[in-house]
Amino acid sequence: MPKYRNPKKTWRYSDEFKVKAVLLSLIKGVQVKEVATALDIHPFMLSRWRKEYREGQIVTDKRKKFTGVVSKHEKELSKVKRLEAENRKLRQEIDLLKKWQRFLAEEHQQDIDSSRNLDKN
């Protein structure tokens, strides 16, 4: 394996970005891993930011309100979850219809086979 001469690039995130990420992860029904994946950061980093936010180490301008951003994302997340549930239901219906179709085809084949046997006798 080749040796790397340059150190790894470490990303610096603004406190505003960190707070937005933390607020997104605090939405009811949202997992840290989902938010981290969406923001392309490691879940451990987001968990650390959440801890720092609770301890008051990450502070942004108090005059800015993030509620609009959070509620917008909350609506989108609820819509996505609803669509995923609908998608799951439709897939189950399709699977059931496929099974029913296979069952009917097998029944039809058995009827054909039994009628052939009757014709031979």
From TrEMBL:
It comes from the Bacteria. Keywords: Coiled coil. Pfam families: HTH_Tnp_1. The keyword Zinc does not apply. Residues 73-100 form a coiled coil. InterPro entries: Homeodomain-like_sf, Transposase_8. Belongs to the transposase 8 family. This is Transposase. It comes from Microbulbifer aestuariivivens. The lineage of its organism: Bacteria, Pseudomonadati, Pseudomonadota, Gammaproteobacteria, Cellvibrionales.
